[in-house]
Design goal:
alpha+beta; OB fold (Dihydrolipoamide Acetyltransferase, E2P); 5 domains
């Protein structure tokens, strides 16, 4: 056993903990790395690199960031054995590092230069090849302070193709699960609407609600009070209770008595989702009283309101309808246990009177939930939040001096991150809502963060003291002014459960509607001047999306989608009975039923009916009103007045994974396709399919015939299948694709078509085909990562169009064909 593992073994009692003892393990030919998400006293991420037969280890409190401008503290800890890389489980109380551990990422690492010299010098540069993290990174040792027992280092992402702005993308928040859990999940068949026997997960990422501008319509909704507290999910197994925040921090020690009360419920195993609050004298939740309870380490008045039960007694209930989960949850909490444990009651009926009543009582608002919805560990439109007043988080960037008899400070200076650039923008100041205790405690925190450097451009007329942008304040206000500042703000409290790096201006969406008795507003909705009939009809039962939701999506995305439709023959996929019913493909007939749809001249396709074109917002919305879900286009762009269908101006390589292909394997295959095209000196562009595969698109000069272009693409696919037969196959058909990927070159036929960028798919969730930059490939979670419900978040945060160079890449196949011949030799 390496001597460096002695501290590891001394700190652990292996009769109690299930962690590996650290027997000598032979190192592999390549250096491995692992990152373990560790919910100990505080959630952190253990970053481990294999070197000299052990895992050199650092504890990273906030986890890795893909933003080169953010330097993450990494505390050097004792070496761990190589076998620790596979460890997932719960370290028992009383043991070193007690808490829950999962494998968050793993893979191989490649040092840049001499790894041993870099490690000794405290400047270690390396490349990561993981399932979540990629690209070049640095670990840099800082000078330790006198009282520090362990060396402080910094973990820094280099500015390469894998870098992302923190305001645009937070890999820790976007990909919270275990990579081992994700693989296991892929092997399990989900039963929609039924409980599935399953092992209790080590972590649960809670479902989040979408802010909407008005109450939803329809009678398929139930409503709960929007509590003014902290989200908590409770894990119960064999009498052991763990309490986690929405970000995965283990608060069990801070809420010990509450955990004890939950342990007395007599539950064998469960995940319970809820919120902790402290009630004021009027019986209303008070965020400041909750915060004060933690500041004073006096949590006896904290109440836990339970509202969901995604796992129970050996079953995964996430696919069970919400109302059925809540019936079971209510039975658990009606047994008259501790008054600190309560079931969150719900209400039904028209939302407007319920919201008015909540606002009159001084509550924050309501949470609306689709009664039949599944539980999804993401932000979803099946849960919506409707607020009585505007309220959101802000980054504190400074403070002003107090005036008169006031102590502490005068007001807090606020900012939010710009959605596109990620830079902090001044958002005004808040000087009301504080009491004497909060003025003093916040001032202490501000003094510890004081800096001479302004985090935002100094606003005119504002004189204050700057602080490093680390604290997050929740503020209520009436509206945003034209210059981006809050009007009539009132401080509600500090948020220790929110990361300052991801705070942006919150924008409400349109409220979704529902199946059942339609509201008059849903019945008579008009979008883009077109009346939407039966807008309340649910077309995707898995997520509760309605026809009106889809029409509004196409209205809002039109500016991005129409350039991909204009001038190209379109194939429409209609779903009159929703995506679960029969689908109809339309290329020719009934075009005149859709306003704004144009027909190409019949002479362009001798022997065929004229093809149709969707080139205007009116045609796009009109098609959606006629139950069109998907838009596909041909590989030819036709100018008005053209006398023939011309020649193709692009090639499409559709990567279609067979049974048994994991997502990381598909990402690897897509990267290999790009490398092949690079060798042929063809610039390519990437997009998701919105379903389960990925598309690689090659723009061309329209100089080759359809048959020549198709034959070339077939040769590329055949060459890859010959070269890497364990990954690629050149024959279509499910039987041929088992464990391999078919690159579909048939998309390049004259009468074939491909799903258009920004089009929705007629599949559960209504995923969207999304253009990407190549640097985004390795960070992708799924081909349907974006849907009609969340694509607006990505679009709002984009700094540049990932396909901005597409129009300039008009390439010839002549040289590529010659290079392909050479490659085959």
């Amino acid at each position: 056993m390496p001597a460096s593992l002695t501290p590891y073994r001394k700190k652990r009692d292996f009769k109690i903990t299930s962690e590996p003892k650290g027997v000598v393990a032979a190192p592999g030919k390549r250096l491995s790395f692992v990152i373990q998400k560790h919910a100990a006293t505080r959630l952190h991420y253990d970053f481990r690199l294999e070197l000299d037969g052990t895992l050199k280890s650092w504890a990273v409190p906030k986890g890795p960031s893909l933003d080169p401008g953010i330097k993450r503290m990494a505390v050097h800890v004792e070496d761990h054995p190589l076998s620790y890389a596979d460890f997932e489980g719960v370290i028992p109380p009383g043991q070193y590092g007690a808490g829950t551990v999962i494998v968050w990422d793993r893979g191989e690492w490649t040092p840049v230069g001499d790894a041993h010299a870099g490690y000794r010098a405290g400047r270690l540069k390396f490349d990561l090849h993981g399932e979540k993290l990629h690209g070049r990174w640095n670990l840099v040792r800082m000078k330790a302070r006198e009282k520090e027992r362990q060396d402080p280092w910094l973990l820094i992402k280099e500015d390469d193709e894998e870098a992302r702005s923190a305001a645009e993308y937070d890999v820790v928040e976007a990909m919270p699960e275990s990579v081992l859990k994700e693989k296991a999940r892929g092997k399990r068949r989900e039963a929609r609407g039924e409980a599935v026997r399953a092992k209790l997960p080590l972590f649960l990422t809670p479902q989040l609600a979408t802010l909407v501008d008005e109450p939803p319509q329809g009678d398929e909704w139930i409503y709960e009070v929007k509590f003014d507290g902290y989200r908590i999910v409770a894990r119960i197994e064999d009498g052991d209770v763990k309490l986690f925040t929405r970000n995965g921090n283990d608060w069990t020690a801070r809420l010990r008595s509450l955990a004890d009360d939950l342990g007395k419920l007599g539950i064998a195993s469960a995940w319970i989702d809820g919120e902790i609050v402290v009630m004021n004298d009027a019986g209303q939740p008070s965020f400041q009283l909750l915060q004060r309870a933690f500041d004073n380490a006096n949590t006896r008045d904290i109440v836990f309101f339970a509202f969901d039960l995604p796992h129970f007694d050996g079953y995964d209930l996430t696919r069970v309808p919400l109302v059925e989960r809540r019936v079971l949850l209510e039975k658990i909490f009606e047994k008259g246990h501790s008054p600190r444990l309560r079931f969150s009651e719900h209400f039904s009926g028209p939302a407007k009177p319920l919201l008015d009543a909540a606002c009159k009582q001084g509550l924050e608002g309501l949470i609306g939930k689709r009664a039949a919805a599944p539980y999804t560990s993401t932000r979803s439109t099946s849960w919506v939040k409707i607020k009585c007043s505007r309220r959101q988080e802000f980054v504190i960037v400074g403070h002003t001096d107090p005036k008169g008899s006031r102590t502490g400070f005068g007001s807090l200076l606020l900012a939010v991150h710009d959605e596109k650039s990620g830079a902090l923008r001044y958002a005004g100041n808040v000087g009301t809502g504080f009491d004497q205790d909060s003025l003093g405690s916040i001032k202490t925190k501000l003094e510890a963060l004081a800096t001479d450097k302004a985090p935002v451009p100094a606003p005119r007329g504002v004189k204050g003291h700057w602080v490093r942008p680390k604290l997050v304040a929740e503020v209520a206000f009436t509206e945003w002014t034209g210059d981006g500042r809050v009007r009539h703000p009132v401080f509600k409290g500090l948020r220790s459960d929110k990361d300052a790096n991801v705070i942006t201006r919150e924008k409400p969406q349109h409220a979704p509607s529902s199946q059942g008795a339609p509201s008059s507003k849903a019945k008579g909705a008009t979008v883009g001047g077109i009346k939407v009939s039966h807008g309340e009809r649910v077309i995707d039962a898995s997520a509760g999306h309605t026809k009106l939701d889809l029409v509004r999506y196409y209205d809002e995305i039109a500016a991005h989608l129409l350039p991909h439709l204009a001038g190209r023959p379109a194939t429409l996929v209609r779903a009159p009975a929703g995506i679960g019913g029969q689908l109809f493909f339309q290329k020719h007939a009934d075009a005149r039923q859709i306003p704004g749809v144009r027909e190409f001249p019949r002479a362009l396709w001798p022997g065929h009916d004229p093809m149709i074109e969707i080139a205007t917002r009116e045609a796009l919305i009109g098609a959606a009103q006629m139950n069109v879900v998907e838009f596909h286009t041909s590989n030819v762009s036709i100018a008005r007045g053209a006398k023939s269908a011309g020649k193709p101006d692009r090639l499409v390589f559709d990567l279609d994974p067979g049974e048994g292909i994991t997502w990381p394997r598909l990402l690897e295959a897509t990267a290999l396709v790009k490398k092949m095209l690079d060798l042929l000196e063809l610039e390519s562009f990437l997009k998701t399919s919105g379903g389960k595969g990925l598309h690689v698109v090659v723009p061309l000069k329209p100089a080759w015939s359809w048959d020549e272009a198709k034959d070339f693409s077939e040769e590329v696919v055949a060459h890859m299948a010959r070269t890497i037969p364990q990954l690629f196959v050149a024959k279509s058909g499910a039987a041929n694709r088992v464990g391999r990927i078919f690159i579909d070159y048939l998309r390049n036929s004259a009468l074939a078509s491909t799903i258009t960028a920004f089009s929705a798919r007629a599949r559960p969730g209504l995923g969207v085909s999304v253009p990407l930059a190549w640097k985004e490939l390795k960070g992708l979670k799924a081909a349907n990562q974006w849907t009609i419900a969340n694509l607006h978040e990505r679009v709002a945060k984009l700094r540049t169009d990932p396909w901005k160079d597409y129009g300039n890449a008009r390439q010839s196949l002549a040289k590529a064909a010659k290079l392909l011949v050479l490659a085959r030799k």
